[in-house]
């Protein structure tokens, strides 16, 4: 891989496009999308794009042509083109950890070497993919048998963060593709309620645990893996472990130390970030549940999006557009959040997955060079199934006081169609996006209240409750049906969106130093909770809580 990268020192706020955007925002702040649509019949055609099985309508945004021009100028000035090539070339774009971020190589589908990386990673990538195929096939065919000779019926992935959220989301999303009768479970939480609940459903004779951890030091994962191992050993003895435990890690030395048979260990590399790792052997649970061919279709979908990202003109480039629109709201409208609303029940975990992808990547406060930033970076990502949200949190989006840009994710066909469901679901998705954009102005609200029988003073007092300001921006992503390939493209779309934003903000999206302090402190508090001595080394609150818990919890 190529070495050191040059670190840009100019903050985004000192780029000339930033000034242009600031001034342009002054003009756009009060413009209503209702008027933009009324004045411009070509808006939908101009502000929509199709690629990789996904159609993106971004016309319901608070933008005009000049907005896009200025946002694209920002990307140019931030040297996005150069950064894209650096990432794909295997340069050490993760400068604070001195590493490349080459997840795109994991889903590279063409023959030959990974273009332009001076160290060709493809032989090791293909070798692990071949091992994953042998493993997944032998489990699916019933050739991999447990300690009593029975085939595996349940896979339990033990991991957390990127070693859990991606595989769990994909397995759920692609459950219609699950291979005959195989069940998948995901255990991540330190509270043993989760592991116990899962173990209670399982037969040790037919259960295979996959311990997934990049570092193989993560407390949650190792604690759960130890307890799962004890459960198995209590029922089947020590010799059963090699038939019931596999591991995925960049540290095979540590998996051996833990007692996992090296034949069952699948490797990946430090150039794969945890939250970008579902494409690597961390996807072993996916490959085992839906089969290796389907897993490779997922990779192909990711690769489709990589090619689009690298080659499409930016005005037609989905990750670039989504990234820049996010910056428009975050930095110029000061929107703190971004909601993700799947109208595909299969994607109900997608917002949780995106939360780690976006917030761990772009939740940064200093530039690549370590200088404090004077502008907002990553948004708070949240969301859930859109249809359920309509009956819960949408009220605040329609009539609350905050700007909430939304991504609607909409399949035209359900994975399990029943008469009447698909059209009803589609009508809700389209209606909500329209209502968020259009709102209900005063005159319409007054007319609706009058039609409902309100008169005179009661009408005056009542109609404001029926006013919806609208002007809430939405992107609508439409695809035919959720297949492995479409899902791969969707995931890669958001990965690259995050990268685009990081480049414009001048931050490193591939590290996560912020999560370390809590881990270090937990390591100090653990023995203090276990010991008998009073604790005084923290602030009064933490000392008090430790004391209270020790006193009331008993030995
Ligand atoms: O604590 C955060 C984190 O490091 C994530 O970045 C990562 O995905 C997760 O923990 C799990 O780490 P590992 O795969 O090393 O167990």
Structure in a nutshell:
By secondary structure, the protein is α/β, with parallel strands linked by helices. It has helices spanning 16-28, 33-39, 43-46, 65-77, 80-88, 103-106, 122-140, 165-173, 192-200, 219-236, 241-244, 252-258, 284-290, 292-311, 318-332, 350-362, 386-389, 394-399, 421-438, 442-451, 456-462, 484-505, 516-530, 540-553, and strands at 48-51, 54-57, 154-158, 183-187, 207-212, 245-249, 265-267, 337-342, 380-383, 406-411, 474-479.
Can you characterise this structure?
The chain is built from 24 helices and eleven strands. It has 555 residues and is of the alpha/beta class. It folds into four domains: 16-38 and 45-98 and 298-434 and 469-505, Glucose-6-phosphate isomerase like protein, domain 1 (Rossmann fold, 3-Layer(aba) Sandwich), CATH 3.40.50; 122-296, Rossmann fold, CATH 3.40.50; 439-468, no CATH class; 513-552, Phosphoglucose isomerase, C-terminal domain. A six-stranded mixed β-sheet has the order 1-2-11-10-8-9, sandwiched between helices. Residues 160-163, 213-215, 218, 221, 274-275, 360, 512, 515 line the site of 6-O-phosphono-beta-D-fructofuranose. 6-O-phosphono-beta-D-fructofuranose binds at residues 160-163, 213-215, 218, 221, 274-275, 360, 512, 515.
